[in-house]
Amino acid sequence: MYKVRIDKFEGPFDLLVYLIQNAKMDIYDIRVAEITEQYIAYLKEMGELNVEVSSEFIVLAAVLIRLKSRMLLPRVNEIGEIVIDEDPRMELASRLAEYVRTKKIAEMLQERIEANECVHEKPAEDMSIYIDSPDELLKTDIEQFVSAFNAFLQKKKRVADVKKRYQRIKRDRASIEERINYMGMIIKDRVSVGESIDFARLVPEDADRYDVTLSFMSLLEMIKMQEVDAKQDRNYGNISVIKKEVQTDVQ
Fold this sequence. Notes:
Layout: H1 12-22, H2 32-48, H3 55-72, E1 75-76, E2 82-83, H4 89-116, H5 128-131, H6 142-172, H7 176-190, E3 196-198, H8 209-224, E4 228-232, E5 239-243
Helix pairs in contact: 2-3, 7-8
C-alpha cells in the first residue's frame, strides 16, 4: 500500500486530492477502497505522532467509509431485487473538482499579490489648480517665469554639450598607433635633433581627457622606441619632448 509522508495539509480535501494525484487516479474514477485505506492510515499516523486531528478530517473519513460500503454492497429493495443507483462517487468527485478549481484560483491570486508587492506606485498629485483655475498660472510673477525659462535653457545647453562631446568622441577617437604618427609628424616638421617641444603642442586642439591620456601613452611608447626623450623639471610641470637622432643599423 502507498504510504504518505507529508507534514501538513490545509484541510481534509487537500489530503484527499494529494492521495488521488499520487495514486494517478482520475477524480471522476476514484478507487474508493484504496483511497479510503490510505486516508485512514494517514489519520492513524497523525494520532501516533500526537498530532491533533481536526473534526473535519474525521468527518471526511466517515464519508469515505460510507462510500466504500456502498461500492462494495449493492442496495436491495423490499422484494429482493438489486437497485442500480447513480454512481455514488459523483457527489464526492464534484466537490473535489470544485475544491481543486478554487485552490488554483487562490494560488493565482496569491501570485498576483506577491507580484504587486514589488510594484511601487507614485501617489496621485493634486491637479485641480491646473484644471479648475488655469488663470491662476498667469498671476505668477514675471521674475519667476524668467528664472524658470533660464533654468530650462541652461539644462538644454548642458544636454546639447554632452551629446556633442559624446558624438565627437565616437567619431574622432584614435588609437595609440595613429596618435604616434600624428605626434611624429609634428616633431619631424617643427623640431631639429636635440631640440625640444612642449608636450602640450603635441596634443590636438580642444582635447578632452581621453585625448590627453592617449597622447601621454603615445609619448611613453615613443620614448620606449627611442625616438624621443622627455624631461620634466618639477611635479605637474611642463613636459619637454626632445627629438633624438634616428639610429640606423650598420650592416
